[in-house]
Design goal:
Elements (H helix, E strand, L loop, with lengths): L2 H36 L5 H32 L2 H20 L4 H4 L2 H31 L5 H4 L1 H24 L2 H6 L4 H18 L5 H9 L6 H8 L1 H10 L1 H20 L5 H29 L1 H15 L3 H5 L4 H19 L2 H7 L6 H18 L1 H11 L2 H21 L10
Helix pairs in contact: 1-2, 1-3, 1-5, 1-7, 1-9, 1-13, 2-3, 2-5, 2-19, 2-20, 3-5, 3-9, 5-7, 5-18, 5-19, 7-14, 12-19, 12-21, 13-14, 13-17, 13-19, 13-20, 13-21, 14-15, 14-17, 15-17, 15-21, 20-21
């Protein structure tokens, strides 16, 4: 790669890594501390359900963020919009770190928490689409899947950073210290990471595809209207193809962490260490799947990984309920490997589904609609399923999510050789 392409790849990676770090530390905090701190006075199961509901708020905000930031990204440009989304996300994350608890201020605490969580969702909704376009619109011919991999590496790296930070706190603080103030440290650390990301993003130039389009065409007045009237099918298929990615990830992390600590009585530090091992498999699957999508096409990779994910749902109950550290780690590693395999091609696939005039809005909206369908209520639904039917029902939920994405992948056209200009 030339130095300029190296810088572009790094810029598309570092922003998503920071934003997903912000997003994941909240997910991990939900499984460990958000309930007791912001919803005290109820039993542990009710606290967990309330915390999981605040977790889902951001997924409802993400399509709105995709639409708002996509509008400006398609009309003004990718660079400025990406910087704004990163700043919003980081500000909300840092403010959660200083938010007073319910015991100190009462009901305003959970209300403000929900507002900041909504702001997190807005920021992340605008981030991924722009980062994917940054990589895809700069990518050399025939290597779009590979370059589209770099924003896809952000989630596993961000999750590894988030998990490692809480694991470090678990080794140095007792439970009382962690609940009193320790959980806030990863949120406050986000401010430093955001400054690094902003510096990298602001040194970039506009993508050549968008710059060429701006010279030859007037920007679309209302990208969302054009998207919904002329590109409804790729929007829906793109969103549905992502359902399995989100279901695999959040069942294997947020729900599994909560279940493992509360029901299997595995120490928090030990389960976090198990997740650190498992997320390495997700990171390993990402370049393999991206390479395969350039070699064989996006659809064959998604179909193969989707079938594997469908059958993996049958392993959830026996392996997670075993209580065996080895079996649980193996299952988490399998699920996150499959998540990486289904997720990696999306960095190229979603931008390829839409023309330049609505690409930011289309890719971001499809991505975040998939988040609503696959992840917003996944931990909550899994908690309800395990309470009323057992772990087998949670495994069935994973298989159904995989079947939905399989149908979407089968119905869409191959996009590997499509020109973006």
């Amino acid at each position: 790669m030339t130095p300029s392409l190296t810088r572009i790849a790094f810029a598309s990676f570092i922003g998503t890594a920071i934003e997903f770090y912000d997003f994941y530390i909240y997910g991990l905090a939900v499984a460990m501390v958000i309930g007791p701190v912001f919803f005290p006075g109820s039993d542990s199961a009710t606290q967990a359900l309330n915390a999981f509901l605040t977790f889902g708020i951001a997924f409802l905000a993400r399509p709105i963020g995709a639409i708002v930031f996509g509008h400006f990204g398609d009309r003004i440009g990718r660079k400025t919009t990406l910087a704004a989304s990163l700043l919003l996300m980081g500000s909300c994350t840092t403010l959660i770190g200083v938010l007073p608890s319910y015991e100190l201020v009462g009901w305003p605490a959970p209300v403000l928490l929900c507002l900041l969580r909504f702001g997190q969702g807005l920021g992340l909704g605008g981030e991924w689409g722009g980062a994917a376009l940054l990589a895809a619109e700069y990518a050399p011919r025939g290597r779009r899947g590979w370059f589209g991999m770099f924003p896809q590496l952000g989630p596993p790296v961000g999750f590894l950073l988030a998990t490692s930070s809480f694991l470090l706190l678990a080794n140095f603080l007792n439970d009382a210290q962690f609940r009193a103030w320790g959980w806030r440290i990863p949120f406050l650390a986000s401010a430093v990471l955001v400054m690094v990301g902003l510096y990298v993003r602001l040194t970039l130039s506009e993508t050549p595809v968008f710059a060429q389009s701006k010279q030859t065409h007037y920007p679309t007045e209302l990208p969302l209207v054009t998207l919904c009237t002329l590109h409804t099918k790729p929007l829906l298929l793109g969103a549905l193809s992502l359902v399995v990615c989100y279901a695999l990830f959040y069942i294997s992390t947020v729900f599994a962490l909560s279940y493992g600590v509360s029901q299997l009585h595995i120490p928090r530090a030990q389960f976090l260490a198990m997740l650190c091992v498992a997320v390495i498999f997700m990171a390993a699957a990402t370049p393999l799947s991206a390479w395969a999508s350039d070699r064989f096409g996006r659809r064959p990779v998604l179909l193969a990984a989707g079938w594997a994910a469908l059958f993996s749902g049958f392993l959830l109950a026996p392996m997670l309920a075993s209580g065996s550290t080895f079996q649980i780690t193996a299952f988490l590693s399998l699920e996150l490997f499959l998540m990486g395999a289904t997720f990696a091609p999306m960095g190229a696939l979603l931008p390829e589904l839409f023309p330049t005039a609505v690409r930011y809005t289309g890719a971001g909206t499809a991505y975040n609609l998939g988040g609503i369908l696959g992840a917003s209520l996944a931990p909550y639904i899994a908690q309800q399923l395990v309470s009323h039917g057992g772990l087998t029902w949670v495994g069935g939920y994973v298989s159904v999510a995989a079947a939905i994405s399989l149908i979407a992948a089968w119905a869409m056209n191959e996009t590997r050789d499509k020109e973006l200009t």
